[in-house]
Amino acid sequence: MWRTLHSEWGKTWSVRAPWICLLTTVALVVITAMSLANDFVYGISIDEVPADARMPMMDAVGPAVLFGQVAFAAFAMQLVTAEYSTGEIRSTLRGQPDRTTVVAAKSLIAAVCGLAVGAASGTLAAGTTRLILADNLASPESYPAVALRCGLLMAVVGILVVAVGALLRNAVATLVTAFAVLIGTLVLPSGLNGWFPGEAGSTFLADDAEPYAGPVGLLVVAVWGVLFLGLGLWSANRRDA
């Protein structure tokens, strides 16, 4: 396992695309959070929002992180789909015939990178939101708490996307499916969308109590990740490279 992980880690950073996707993730999260905070302050300045109104930090950071998942999904899917599109997967499987080990290594890399980029982008977004809102900020949260929640969600999302990639093997199909599962499910009727990754991730980030406690939201996303991972491993072991 260690040799496979070392090999996969080296391949990940041998090209520019992963770096671009991760930097784009951070930029999207921070810029989106800044935009939401600015809109709130602007609403106060033109009297659309009461002057004494306060905006919770996670009302800006949470949606921003959900949006940033799209760019991070592009990173995670490349760990799998890039090798199938170029045929490099054949060399990978000759070096490590155990396909479960290969998928596990890619999943671990996605999780580690998700934890790091989620924590970094969440902390930066929280800092800029606090700076922009100033006295209009309600319920400020500690940076470590925000970083932990954002990092954990991105880590689980990374595993989910790698699993979808292992199942579908096509970049476009993987990205579309990831978008539908992570973002598209937010438009489902209330009461139903809470059991899909989009709303579940939002509930976890906000640490809300509706429709369930915040940590349950992460568990819901994790269950979807396990489901796709099982399907991805089944596909990897059943189909030819």
Category from helices, strands and their pairing = mainly alpha
Residues in helices, as a percent range = over 70%
**Ends: how far apart?**
20 Å
Number-wise, the strands total: 2
Low-confidence stretches: none
Tell me what the structure shows.
The chain is mainly alpha-helical. The chain has one domain. Helix content is 76%, strand content 2%. Helix 3 (58-86) packs parallel to helix 6 (143-168), helix 3 crosses helix 8 and helix 5 runs antiparallel to helix 6 (143-168).
Structure described in brief:
With 241 residues, this protein is mainly alpha-helical. The protein has one domain. It has helices spanning 2-12, 17-45, 58-86, 89-95, 99-133, 143-168, 171-182, 197-206, 214-238; strands spanning 55-56, 137-138.
How is this fold's topology laid out?
Layout: H1 2-12, H2 17-45, E1 55-56, H3 58-86, H4 89-95, H5 99-133, E2 137-138, H6 143-168, H7 171-182, H8 197-206, H9 214-238
Parallel strand pairs: 1-2
Helix pairs in contact: 1-5, 2-3, 2-5, 3-5, 3-6, 3-7, 3-8, 5-6, 6-7, 6-9, 8-9
List keywords for this structure.
241 residues, mainly alpha, 2 strands
